[in-house]
Amino acid sequence: MKEKGSGLPTSGALVKTSRSFPILLTIWYLLLSLATSIDVVTAGEPAAATDDQRASPPLVTVYPLQIDDILYNPGMGFADFHFGFDHPPSRTQYPRSTVAYFRWSWADLEPVEGEYNFQLVDDVIAQARAKGETLAFRIMTEYEDGSPAWLLDKGVASVSVSGGTFPDYNDPRFLEAHERLLKALGARYGDSPAIDHVDIGSIGCWGEWNMACCLGVEARCKQLYATEDNQRKITDWYFQYFPAVPLVALVGGQLAYATAQGAGWRGDCFGDYGYFRSDWNHMDHVYARKLRDPVVAEAWKHGPIEFEVCGVMQDWIDKGFNLDLILQKGLEWHVSVLNAKSEPVPESWRPRIEEFQKRLGYRLVLRELTHTVETIPGGIVTVRSQWNNVGVAPMYHDHPLAYRLRSNEGAVVAQWESEARPMDWLPGSSIQVEDAHPLSEDLPAGRYHLDVAVLSEDGSTADVELAIAGKRADRWYPVSALTVRREQARDGAPSP
């Protein structure tokens, strides 16, 4: 007899019953094990049932099989950067994505004062949805068109820089108009499940909160750069107008201030171990130092960590960078999304990139599930489950855990959501969940599959792949079975 803790079977799941059963029920479980690759064992030798056992319904425990596949889940993995800029790499060159990432200039979003180009964003959301992706974005005020001409024509000072126009971030007219922009975007997208996250951008070169584009005009850019008060003011607007969307602070910005309020953070030169200079790099001299602040170091627990590669991955090879070190740092820093700029991953590195994909973000494992094995119409189904998140980060959207009963013909006769919140499941913890659900009195008698899933935020479909075997095409996982009988026998067990 295989006891709990003695290991998982090679396929299917291990099932353990909680008390002795009538002979017909035991035979039924043996047939179930043959039909579904479930190993069935009893918890002990048959014995005479006590009064307490007769009064309580029988329970069964299953142990799903953990898998090591890459999971393609919302809010994690490789970013689809501007859909490949009209030349997307093939699936063999670049990992499949679940997050589309775009950066837009203010001028693109508000070409005429007070007229917001929502259609631009809506079209990208629709394209992303068709690809199974949600959208993340950043607003830029410097790059290319940057701040709109109508704003600069009001007399807002600026200076020409490499690739764009650097505005006066302290001009009251800039601040007033930019708050209106954020308010308008937030009203439309601030609680949309189509949005994965929003960068706290807006300031500096490329919205990165720096002056790296100010070559030759550094002094003028410094005069125009946002004061500490205005940096915080703009940061606060993001929290005010995007209250239900995860926010990501740029590493050059108000990082401690934003992460203390719940933001995650991102670095846009990930992998730099000497890309620009041999005596200085982003990995050691920027990111690692920022993480000395415990507020920033703990930010991953409530906000996503995002990185963008420095150059492209082929540059890492050309410069002799250590891929294993880079990827390990990403995992240590709890990365959820990596923007590799939709440029091909070097072929020789793909096996190691695939292993990295198996570890980044969240990865939910259902370790065991104990449930009522028999009930009657109108009865209570009790489900107790144990979960682990074996990834490096939690999920940052509120995806509900759910169960359902499904007939052999595929009809869903009951479905309910758990009170548990998977977004609270941090890596390294063991999560115990217990739910009790009353069934309809009109539920037909019969034998039903018990399925589990983590749903989309609106609860309409199963949306999250679990790290267990058995996924159906609809992303539900059949983990056990339950019998509904017509009436209750005198001893408390449902009658045949």
Automatic annotation (TrEMBL):
GO MF annotation list: beta-galactosidase activity
Keyword Hydrolase found: yes
SUPFAM superfamilies listed in its UniProt record: (Trans)glycosidases (SSF51445)
Glycoside hydrolase family 42 N-terminal domain sequence ranges: 103-199
GO process annotations (BP): carbohydrate metabolic process
Name the record gives this protein: DUF4832 domain-containing protein
Domain DUF4832 span(s) in chain numbering: 332-457
GO CC annotation terms, alphabetical: beta-galactosidase complex
Highest taxon of source: Bacteria
